[in-house]
Design brief:
The chain is of the alpha/beta class. The protein contains five helices and three strands, in the order ααβαβαβα. The chain has a three-stranded parallel beta sheet, with helices on both faces. The N and C termini lie far apart (about 45 Å).
């Protein structure tokens, strides 16, 4: 995933990665740090990214943006079940993957900005 996205997938969008190898590490990182985007492997075992995505949606008041990576496009329904913001399929296309990540980060950043009202 990291090689498909890179360190700066768009002008003004720099990525700092925190990598976890299992469910416990992923949850610990999300609990400890302000994570803007979580990229999850939908095929990981025993606790797959799809289950983690759904758990984040169920348990966090303000979950990070979530993208899951699926082995098959036919599994899009699983991504919908997990309530992920985006689904990518293997093999990862670097252009599509980077665009998806940038869109999710920009949308999250825009949502975090205070609204400006005219006086």
């Amino acid at each position: 995933m990291r090689s498909a996205i890179g360190e700066e997938p768009a002008e003004g969008v720099k990525i700092e990665y925190a990598v976890s190898g299992d469910y416990d590490d992923a949850v610990a990182l999300i609990d400890k740090y302000a994570i803007d985007l979580v990229l999850l492997d939908g095929e990981a075992q025993p606790a797959g990214g799809l289950g983690i995505a759904r758990q984040l949606r169920d348990e966090l008041d303000d979950p990070p943006a979530i993208a899951v990576v699926l082995a098959r496009a036919a599994d899009q329904w699983l991504a919908a079940w997990s309530r992920a913001d985006a689904a990518l399929t293997h093999p990862l296309n670097p252009v599509t993957t980077a665009e998806t990540v940038v869109d999710l980060l920009v949308s999250r950043r825009s949502a975090a900005l205070p609204s400006q009202r005219a006086a």
